[in-house]
Amino acid sequence: MRVAVVVVHVKVVVVVVVVVVVVVVVVVVVVVVIVVIILVVEVVVVVILVEVVLAVAAVVVVVVVVVVVVVVVVVVVVVVVVVVVVVVVVVVVVVVVVVVVVVYCCCYRVLMVLTVG
């Protein structure tokens, strides 16, 4: 009887660990992809801004103001995107933890009924 309970616990813990590892890997991949996209967009914006500054050297003051405004907007957008990503990741982790706990409880009950009777 005790061995059956231990076996049930081990099976449930293995399932929970596998689910948590898969979810963590998926979340990390999503965050890395989003960060790479943000960095590529920033590089493109910087390249465009440098070309504009070189092409319009006569109106340096206007270009500097535009560059500062665009950089500030890009930084604000990046910060907002990062905050949104962090919030989404936290929400996903909380949901996954709740689902894992519910699945653990259900699996434990089912396995106990099947093994113990």
UniProtKB/TrEMBL annotation:
Q: Does the keyword Transmembrane apply?
A: yes
Question: Which keywords describe this protein according to UniProt?
Answer: Membrane, Transmembrane, Transmembrane helix
* Membrane-crossing residue ranges in chain numbering: 12-45, 52-78, 84-111
Q: Look up the coiled coil feature and give its residue ranges.
A: none
- Organism's domain of life? Eukaryota
Q: Which GO terms describe its cellular component?
A: membrane
One molecular function GO term is: transmembrane transporter activity
Tell me the protein's name: ABC transmembrane type-1 domain-containing protein
Originating species: Elysia marginata
